[in-house]
Amino acid sequence: MLEVSGITRIFGGVTALDDVSFTIGQGSVTGVIGPNGAGKTTLFNIITGIYNRTSGSVKLGGKDITGLPPERLARLGMVRTFQNIELFGAMTVLENVMVGLHTKSSSGLLACSLMMPWSIAEERRIREAAMHWLEFTGITGLADDTAGNLSFGKGRLLEIARALAVEPRIILMDEPAAGLNSQETLGLAQLIGKIRGMGITVVLVEHDMELVMDVCDRIVVLNLGKKLAEGTPREIQENAEVIAAYLGDG
Amino acid sequence: MKGNSLPMKGREFLRKKRTPMQLEQILQYSFSGLSTGAIYALIGIGFSIIFNATGIINFAQGEFVMLGGMLTLFFLELLQLPLWAAVPCAVAVSALAGILFERLAIRPLRQPTPINLVIITIAGSILIRGLAMLLWGKDTHAIPPFSGDEPISIAGATILPQHIWILAITVLIIAVNKFFFYHTISGKAMRACSYNRRAASLVGIDVRRMVLLSFIISSVLGSLAGIIVAPLTMTAYDVGIMLGLKGFCAAIIGGMSSGMATVVGGLILGVLESLGAGLISSGYKDAIAFIILLLILFIRPQGLFGKAESERV
Fold it and tell me: Where would I find the ABC transporter domain in this sequence (chain A) (predicted)?
């Protein structure tokens, strides 16, 4: 599904990522973990086209997607969420999700601006589809609220709803549990399960070990820009090198 | 003044009549101010739409106003089209000019820093103006009014049918604009781009396409403004400079909102300018606009109404 091979990124003289390779299977949930500064977010930003890599390649379903801009990736079925939620703050919750359905809109600009009947019908279809995603993430009641006024936890759910509206094949989440309380984290774990249930591949960068061990099939551990280990949660928990990296002494 | 025909009691007469005369005059100036203000509002919205989509102040905006008027004239006189056909043709050609401008001047830029972009729009403006001068010469032209020039009298002041056309078309355009941005998916996508470009591209919105769209909409708005005002003020290759700057002024008063704030900004500017020109001296007409512009930039750079954020597009 997602094939990362030999990704290296050098910032000035600092090697942030050094020859990182791994493969993620269709429909799996994979966690990318590692101590602070391990290069997890840099890796995410390279996969999702926000940073450029120094060398290496990324393939999605066999297709080389290295260096493609985010909007192309979204159309190819790859979406992501951010650690610091990125929403359209002045729009309503529902509108935020409707914008996610933008790529599914077929009626052209002219039809829209002339308010043709079919574009109005489409607008209604998009509204209904957006409501479906709000229901899926459990924030239907907030549909008409301004996105900027949401609590952090609800904003996170909205960001996920909006990403799902793009109907992705794979969703990458950058620290989805950051800033959430334990109740919200529990809800998030269930939501990730539901997303996987729809056949969508999930990749997350996460610090919350409990969440990672709970929801992930496989875990990739990064340390100092290198891949340290890869395996099932159980294997990782028993890996001496990983324990050493986390406890700070090799 | 009729007072001149009464030499004996001239002074007395004038003094007595002065108060009602001035009220009528104020009404008269306000009416014409509102219609020029509506024009400034349309141009100002054009500025705001591009600014919100790209962060650029497009100083070529005025040239699309000029193109609207000059192209209408071209289609009317040289191709002998009726008005109802000439106007859409002129708007379409202006929109095409907007597309070319974005494609050839804005998009290829390697390092699109705001200052580079602003300089490019100024260069584009000079280029378009120069081409218009070569094509159509330096003469000032008039477009016939849309429906005659029989004045209509309202409460002692008179307005022309064209004033009504201007106000009605402006209201219609603003309504369509509002509908587009709030009730169509493309409009929502454009708003999304202006709020958070990174998030917009993440959900698959092609930001560059939205930038192009903003240039199309702005050139259409600008050319329409230029067309509806031409029967009143005449048109020439260089009308874009002043109209563009006045529209910019309206957008600044409105805090770069593409909604009602800029409309109100345009109307305030139009009325103040018209009253100033009528009651103080017509020589100060343009100065008034720029004094307002400077005052707003010094005192309230976020615009007269402050919270422009919620309706920025």
Answer: 2-249
Whether B3 and B13 have beta carbons less than 8 Å apart is answered as yes
User: What single string gives the DSSP state of each residue in B233-278?
Assistant: H-B-TTHHHHHHHHHHHHHHHTTT-SSHHHHHHHHHHHHHHHHIII
Nearest CA in chain A to B312: A90
> Of the given ranges (A196-205, A208-217, B262-271, B304-313), which has the lowest mean pLDDT?
B304-313
Question: Which chain B residues touch A162 with a CB distance below 8 Å?
Answer: 203
The residue of chain B nearest to residue A69, with distances taken between CA atoms, is: B201
pLDDT tens for each residue of B47-58: 999 998 888 899
Q: Which CATH class, in words, describes the domain spanning B29-146+158-311?
A: mainly alpha
Decide the pairing of beta strands A78-81 and A170-174.
Answer: parallel
Looking at residue B30, its amino acid is S
| Interface contact flag, A88 B200, Cβ < 8 Å | yes
- pLDDT value, residue A113: 52
Helix axes of B207-233 and B161-183: crossing angle, nearest 10 degrees: 170
Query: What order of strands is seen across the sheet that includes strand A78-81?
Result: A78-81, A170-174, A201-205, A29-33, A218-223, A226-231
3-state secondary structure B35-47: HHHHHHHHHHHHH
Torsion A183-A186-A188-A190 (CA) sign: negative
How far B253 CA sits from the closest chain A CA (Å)? 21
Find the closest chain A residue to B214 by CA distance: A109
CB distance A87–B196 less than 8 Å? yes
Q: Could you give the angle at the alpha carbon of B250 between the alpha carbons of B249 and B255, nearest 5°?
A: 95
Distance from CA of B101 to the nearest CA of A (A): 19
SS3 content of chain B, % helix, strand, coil (to 5): 75, 5, 20
**Closest A-chain CA to B212:** A109
User: Do the chains contact at A71 and B176, CB–CB below 8 Å?
Assistant: no
* Mutate: best of A45, A48, A86, partner B, most B CBs <10 A: A86
What is the C-alpha separation between B266 and B35, in angstroms, rounded? Answer: 10
What ipTM score was computed for the predicted complex, to two decimals?
A: 0.76
Residue owning tokens 């859409």: B88
Which residues, listed in sequence order, are joined to residue B146 by a DSSP beta bridge?
A: B148
Select the residue of B185, B191, B202 nearest A70 (Cβ to Cβ).
B202
**Which sequence spans correspond to the domains of chain B?**
29-146+158-311
Interface A-B: count of C-beta contacts within 8 A: 97
Residue A153: its H or E element: helix A152-165
> Is this prediction's pTM over 0.95?
no
Task: Provide the 8-state DSSP code for B116.
Answer: H
Asked if B312's CB is within 8 angstroms of A102's CB, the reply is no
Angstrom distance (rounded) from CA B257 to CA B264: 11
Least Cα distance to B64 among B99, B38, B107 occurs for B99
Q: Cα(A157)–Cα(A161) distance, rounded to whole angstroms?
A: 6
Backbone dihedral angles phi then psi of residue B299, each to the nearest 5 degrees: -95, -45
Fold of A2-247: Rossmann fold (3.40.50)
